[in-house]
Amino acid sequence: MQTAREALVGSEAKGLSASTVARLKQTWRDEYHTWRQCQLDEEDWVYIWSDGIYSGLRGERPRLCALVVIGVTSKGEKQLLAIDDGVRESTQSWREVLLYLKARGRNAPALAIGDGALGFWGALEEIYPTTRQQRCWVHKTRNVLNALPKSVQPKAKQALHEIWQAETKGAADRAFDVFLKTYEAKYPKATACLEKDREELLTFYAFPAPHWQSLRTTNPIELTFGTIRHRTKQTNGSLTRDSMLHMMFKLGRCAEKTWRRLRGFRQLAQVISEIQFIDGIEETMQDPVAA
């Protein structure tokens, strides 16, 4: 079994003493606190993704929930903006995260992407009321399918895909209605779960089509921190709450170096300028006859 030391610093840990690892942990702590002081007002932040990542830390009640925010600059570069200790993704915890980002100079993003956790959205509406909301389709699909029998799930999953894969919002609305009519009578909990976020699930249609793939889910966080969550489980309870957070921060910063620029990043300037998009196409470019 992998040791806690190896989980912390990788295979190189075999050649490191306990005192060296302790110094590394102190270095990560210092880096984390320095990073949290960096100003954010030199960039225009266009989109943000948010999620709460529960660690594998044992023996803590409540468990550590790292509140993570990743942002996209006007140049299309993704950056880790926040990773803070939260309490079950509560509104107060998210309020503190967003207020701190605002104090560091982060502007109101055009769009925030996240799951249905009410804590984040309640805080967002208070701190950044002009920011539009997009619910994550991965989280929503999982929640809807969990309310259905396993025998029904494959067809239901395909029906959900037909909604968010539609070329236009009109087509998505029609597919949405078909899903509700198909499953509402027998599985009202599943359809209620989907319908309550209808507007916020389809917000991405009002943004450039090249961005849709990135805007429909919280994958920038899920893909990065899913791996980190697995790695932290190998620590066997040897970390404190703070050192676990610092470890997750360090692993996140390392992953940040591999993140690709947002596809279609040149259109971010149009989003910043508040140019309107209909079904992913700039409104001024719409065919007046087709419209």
Give a short summary of the structure:
With 291 residues, this protein is of the alpha/beta class.
What is the topology?
Elements lengths: L3 H6 L8 H18 L9 E10 L10 E9 L4 E9 L4 H13 L7 E4 L3 H10 L4 E4 L1 H10 L6 H12 L4 H15 L4 H8 L2 H4 L10 H4 L3 H14 L8 H16 L11 H5 L4 E2 L2 E2 L9
Parallel strand pairs: 1-4, 4-5
Antiparallel strand pairs: 1-2, 2-3, 6-7
Give the tags:
7 strands, single chain, 46% helix, disordered N terminus, 291 residues, alpha/beta, five-stranded mixed beta sheet, two-stranded antiparallel ribbon, 13 helices
Can you describe what's shown?
It is a single chain. The chain is an alpha/beta fold. It has a domain at 137-216. The protein has 13 helices and 7 strands. The strands form 2 sheets. Strands 3-2-1-4-5 form a 5-stranded mixed sheet, with helices on both faces. α5 packs antiparallel against α6 and α11 (219-232) crosses α12 (241-256). The longest helix is centred in the first third of the chain and has 18 residues, at 18-35. It starts with a helix and ends in a 9-residue tail after the last strand. The model is unreliable at 1-5 (pLDDT under 50).
